[in-house]
Amino acid sequence: MKRTAIINANLFTPQGSAAFRGEEMGRLLHIGGAQIEVADGAIEYVGPSRALPDACDVIDAGGAAVLPGFVDSHTHLVFGGMRPQEFMWRMRGDSYMSIMERGGGIASTTKATREASFSHLRDKALGYVEKMRQMGVTTIEAKSGYGLDRETEIRQMEVAASLGPGVVSTFLGAHALPAEYAGRADEYIDFLIAEMLPAAKPLAANCDIFCEKGVFSIEQSCRLLLAARDMGFGAKIHADEIVCTGGAELAAEIGALSADHLLHVSEAGIKALADSPTVATLLPITAFALKEEYAPARSLIDAGAAVALASDFNPGSCFSYSVPLMIALACIHMGMSIEEVISALTINGAAALGMADSIGSVEVGKKADIIILDTDDINMLPYHTGINLVKRTLLHTDL
Ligand code: NIG
Ligand code: FE
User: What confidence score (pLDDT) does residue 97 get?
Assistant: First the structure.
């Protein structure tokens, strides 16, 4: 058995196997001078310093802040092509939806992804994963949704599966209506339910849909996600991103794992999320890049909801997976405390993936996904704005 001990850790961690809600998000366990012992990747001891076990590797944190690894619970990691021209059009004033309506956006990435080989997609995604690891991300969700056909959707999820144990797929076949189904959205949902969900089941734990005006309706989202839920998928929804359609309320009603984006969530949607276990996953870099108002993190937390933060990394609305930028935007523009941000990036991200029983906190029995900062003070994370302060990312598979 391989044993590792992390000593002299200034540990900050949420606790438990469920999302932190409301004011609980501000309550991290803090142990100064902590010792964490790991056996074959599983945490076996967390507490004050004590005699070291025999024959163990020692990692001396030197008093630095130690946190659970970050969970990026919303990314579109695997895709062909790039869309820098669209970014410049948006900066000039074009809207995200107007670019999508004239055949750009998701349709353009779908064309490039259909044409890309497995190894091309894999090499590209692996490059991003390595950079995300340097910023402390130990678990990465990767959505499909740039194939919109059987073969390419499967290829995207197989690429994700090849990227390592910390990368988990979500099936997003309902990301947009493919040209082949123009004007036949209900038939496309039928195809996803009858053919794609069974094909995706071995590759993805969760199923997502872009519920948006002009994309998929509340009824279509409900139909797909209930079918997915019956097959054992966790449900996730791109909800109330561009306009308010009631996606948050639907997520709460069907017991979705998460409602994501929520830039235009209604008061009723906030209340529905506060009264349900569904995690409100907020994606501040997307709001920043689209020059939209940020999601109402404060109202959600104050109402008692569980808020997660994630990057939404994708080639369109948000070509960034910068954790330092996400932390800065959440603290500076969304009114979140650094403790709330840490809960949002760890236990709540894990809960948004249905994984809070195994990752998201530094506790006995959980996987040892742990990061060491190069400061002892967690307040440095937003204060040293936009700078990566993660010195070391430890994956349970390496310990
Ligand atoms: O979460 N809104 C839908 N999906 C992505 C954008 C995908 C794209 O533009 O390629 C999002 O913002
Ligand atoms: Fe997204």
Answer: 87
Cα separation, 305 vs 238, whole angstroms? 17
| Residue 349, ligand 1, Cβ within 6 A | no
> 327 CA distance to ligand 1 centroid (A)?
21
Is the Cβ atom of 145 under 6 angstroms away from ligand 1? no
> What is the pLDDT, as a whole number, of residue 205?
97
The pTM is what?
Answer: 0.97
pLDDT, block means (10 residues), the chain with 399 residues: 97 98 98 98 98 95 98 98 94 90 90 98 98 98 98 98 96 97 97 98 98 95 98 98 95 98 97 98 97 97 98 97 98 98 98 98 98 98 98 97
CB atoms within 10 A of CB 55: 8
Q: Which residues contact 353 (CB under 8 A, 6 or more apart)?
A: 71, 73, 139, 141, 168, 205, 206, 234, 257
- What single-letter amino acid sits at 23? E
The pLDDT score that the predictor gives to residue 222 is 98
Do the strands 279-282 and 306-309 form a parallel or antiparallel pair, or are they unpaired?
Answer: parallel
Can you tell me the distance from the alpha carbon of 359 to that of 239, in angstroms, rounded to the nearest whole number?
Answer: 25
Q: Which residues pair with 66 in a beta bridge?
A: 11, 372
Tokens of 375: 């400061």
Neighbours of ion ligand 2 (CB under 5 A): 312
Among 94, 30, 38, CA closest to 66: 30
User: For residue 364, what are the contacts with CB-CB under 8 A and spacing of at least 6?
Assistant: 43, 44, 45, 46
d(CA 208, CA 144): 9
CA distance 336 to 49: 32
The sign of the torsion formed by the CA atoms of 70, 72, 73, 78 equals negative
The CB of 105 under 6 Å from ligand 1? The reply is yes
Q: Read off the tokens for 135.
A: 């910023």
The reported pLDDT for the residue numbered 96 is 87
Residue bearing tokens 């808020």: 307
Burial of 112: CB neighbours in 10 Å, binned 0-12, 13-18, 19+:
middle
